[in-house]
Design a protein that fits this description.
mainly alpha; 3-stranded antiparallel beta sheet; two-stranded antiparallel ribbon; 5% strand
């Protein structure tokens, strides 16, 4: 990195400075699609969702879908299954709508239809007039009862739509009408699956879709190398229940761990996604601009990659017993070293998915340090 770039990076003292540096760079539109999901999340977390419209504008539909996957599925209680965070998704929907109706339709189209059903079921009540009400005068006099006011109830195609919360209608209404205008078949298909039943008028109207969507989200996270909270809790429960003697006798992975490493191996051997656009970027733009943009991302990236190699950093002040062993192993048996690093990453993921530290969820650094410390104690105990 050049001295000029380094000097500029050192001046980033606030989110406004970061945002201005990014948006002033003429190559930002070409650069944003190349930024990994973790890097985009770190930038937006630092700047704030509400101020990040100019960054979100240059994301690709697939890229934004991955970002929304990350930020709207959370498990605030460690070890509990991840759930859709409707409040957080609505914050993002507000910002996406600021970028125009065409933009919001294109980005929502990139989401799975089941996911769209699951999303809308958190915000609206829908009644199919073709099947429930044939008399429009009757409809006018008999609006669906619930928390919504009459002013927030209207027809979209053959459906009577009401928001579950009136104060969200200013966003939901233009989104629904944009979808109806540009993607009527998609919206009508989604709404037909959102039709409220008498037993679920004020809640999620399609439990089967909700469960299926959550399950597929869990599988997607696993394919990316994350450990599902339920799997993490099961691992920790087993570790607590087994005696130390039995644990020391084990020489193979449990079923969940084996499945995790099998997925990791499959991902490594699979064909990478098309990188033509990323490669073309370096031919079309100024290299110094790209270097500066990359430096900004690195500077503000609060969450390290979950890749095992990058997770293997550990405490900076002193090497733990495990780190010393791994250093030696890297010379004696590099192949085994790679697998040990993958195991360290797996254990760190388990802590982040199922444990608390000082009442808060583990971050990457805390988790990796805890893995090193715990394994080092075990090594010293086993060696004594």
């Amino acid at each position: 990195m050049t001295g000029v770039v380094m000097a500029q990076v050192q001046r980033f003292q606030s989110s406004k400075h970061i945002l201005k540096t990014l948006t002033d760079n003429p190559d930002l539109p070409a650069f944003i699609p190349t930024v990994p999901t973790a890097g985009m999340l770190s930038l937006i977390d630092r700047i704030g969702v509400e101020d990040s419209a100019m960054l979100i504008e240059f994301t690709t539909p697939v890229q934004l879908a991955e970002i929304l996957d990350e930020i709207t599925w959370t498990n605030p209680i460690p070890g509990a299954p991840e759930k859709f965070d409707s409040v957080e998704f609505f914050r993002w929907l507000e910002v996406i709508l600021e970028l125009g109706e065409d933009f919001v339709v294109e980005r929502l189209r990139a989401l799975d239809e089941d996911f769209l059903v699951h999303i809308l079921s958190h915000y609206i009540q829908a009644s199919d007039l073709n099947t429930e009400i044939n008399d429009m005068e009757y409809f006018k006099d008999n609006a669906i009862p619930g928390p919504s006011s009459a002013e927030c109830t209207e027809l979209v195609g053959r459906f009577q739509i009401s928001p579950i919360h009136d104060d969200e209608w200013y966003v939901l209404q233009p989104v629904l009408w944009a979808l109806q205008e540009q993607q009527p078949n998609l919206l009508q298909a989604v709404l037909s699956r959102c039709v409220a039943t008498e037993s679920a008028m004020y809640g999620i109207s399609n439990t089967a879709v909700a469960l299926d969507t959550a399950h597929r989200q869990r599988l997607k996270k696993q394919q990316k190398g994350f450990v599902a909270p339920e799997d993490a809790m099961r691992f920790l429960d087993s570790a607590r229940d087994w005696s130390l003697q039995l644990l020391l006798q084990e020489d193979d992975y449990d079923l969940d761990a084996q499945a995790h490493f099998n997925r990791a191996m499959s991902n490594k051997t699979s064909q990478p996604e098309d990188l033509d656009h990323i490669l073309d970027v370096h031919e079309l733009v100024d290299t110094n601009n790209l270097t500066l943009l990359a430096a900004v991302v690195c500077r503000v990236e609060l969450e390290k990659s979950h890749d095992a190699v990058q997770l293997l950093t550990g405490p900076k002040d002193e090497l733990s017993a495990l780190q010393k062993r791994l250093q030696t192993l890297s010379v004696e048996d590099p192949t085994a070293m790679i697998q040990r690093k993958a195991e360290v990453s797996y254990l760190a993921n388990i802590l982040m998915a199922a444990c608390l530290i000082d009442g808060e969820k583990f971050n990457d650094e805390q988790a990796i340090n805890a893995v090193y410390a715990t394994c080092s104690v075990g090594l010293e105990y086993h060696s004594s």
